[in-house]
Design goal:
This protein is α/β, with parallel strands linked by helices. It has 13 helices and eleven strands.
């Protein structure tokens, strides 16, 4: 007999992951069935914290204003987590937080005022977890692959050239972030030609010194807010439709990325917002797109595969695997 009522689902425990980054803070709540390593995303939230916006690269201190912004966002996350009756939270801090000389005091204040215990992780650990989330979502089980995650303060790389290769998996973090680069190079609105040239030269020099070598024509996977926004712009995807289920696995060519960059660099921030970009994203989009374009040129790659699944998913996967084998 055909039953038209609600579909039965086994009881699920809710877990959550948080990424407190240089530019944004993100929350993922997922349901997990008993004795399972699989999870089902239930809700996502992202808020701009702008930690890198007033982060002094010399003093390396998170300002009181930035700390207050982060606390406000994480208190909101804490309320959502309580509403969803989450059993376990895996919360990590990345980007400028791990560099800050007052990191411990900042994270202590976050815990005191939000009840969320956030752990700062290394760039290499961030690269590993991000790659884990992206590769898992795309169903990629074997090398070669290069996954990059462009954030507000840094870009993380996870790459493996060949199965069983002597060098194995390489994970590293490079100081190329959309917010940090915007603050350092793009003073005008819209950016001046000389500012764009200086930015491109800095990106190229940094990639030549620090980016892992990767063979031409091998799969490149891109994650992060800039990549997701570029994908949405090219495919006319609305803001409320920018979710992993919609964009994971889509392709972006170098030509498409550079075309978007060329249009955006001549627009003011207000004009970018008028064309559908979020306010927080519009401020850093030009620098972020420049990094993606210069990176593909550095790798001699003609395209990338988009993944919106990243550190949030990778952190949950890692936690569940530990639960299963612990």
């Amino acid at each position: 007999m055909y039953y038209e009522g609600p579909i039965y689902r086994p009881p699920m425990n809710n877990i959550a992951s948080i990424d407190l980054g240089s530019h944004t803070a993100r929350l993922l709540i997922a349901g997990v069935g008993k004795d399972s390593e699989m999870f089902e995303p239930l809700m996502r939230k992202r808020s701009y914290v702008y930690l890198a916006g007033d982060f002094d690269p010399v003093l390396k201190r998170i300002s009181p204003e930035a700390s207050a912004r982060a606390v406000t966002v994480l208190k909101d996350f804490s309320r959502i987590i309580e509403d969803w009756r989450v059993k376990r939270v895996v919360a990590v801090a990345t980007g400028v937080v791990r560099e800050a000389v007052n990191r411990d005091e900042f994270l202590a204040e976050v815990f005191l005022k939000s009840g969320l215990r956030v752990k700062a992780i290394s760039g290499e650990r961030e690269a590993f977890l991000t790659g884990k989330g992206a590769l898992g979502a795309l169903g990629i089980n074997e090398p070669p692959f290069l996954v990059f995650d462009l954030g507000g303060g840094t870009t993380e790389f996870l790459c493996q050239r060949e199965k069983g290769g002597e060098e194995g998996i390489a994970a590293k973090s490079v100081s190329l972030g959309a917010m940090v680069l915007t603050k350092a190079f793009l003073k005008s609105d819209p950016p001046l030609e000389r500012e764009m040239n200086a930015l491109s030269e800095h990106i190229d020099q940094t990639l030549n010194r620090k980016c892992p070598y990767f063979p031409e024509n091998e799969p490149v996977i891109g994650t992060g807010g800039t990549v997701a926004a570029l994908c949405a712009m090219h495919n006319d995807i609305l803001l409320n439709e920018i979710v992993p289920e919609r964009i994971n696995g889509l392709k972006l060519t170098l030509f498409q990325i550079e075309s978007c960059l060329e249009k955006m660099r001549h627009l003011t921030i207000a004009q970018r917002i008028e064309r559908g970009l979020e306010s927080g994203r519009s401020q850093v989009m030009v620098a972020g797109a420049a990094v993606v374009a210069r990176l593909l040129r550095h790798l001699n790659a003609s395209e990338l595969t988009v993944s919106m699944s990243d550190l949030l998913e990778g952190a949950l996967m890692d936690f569940l695997e530990g639960e299963q084998h612990g």
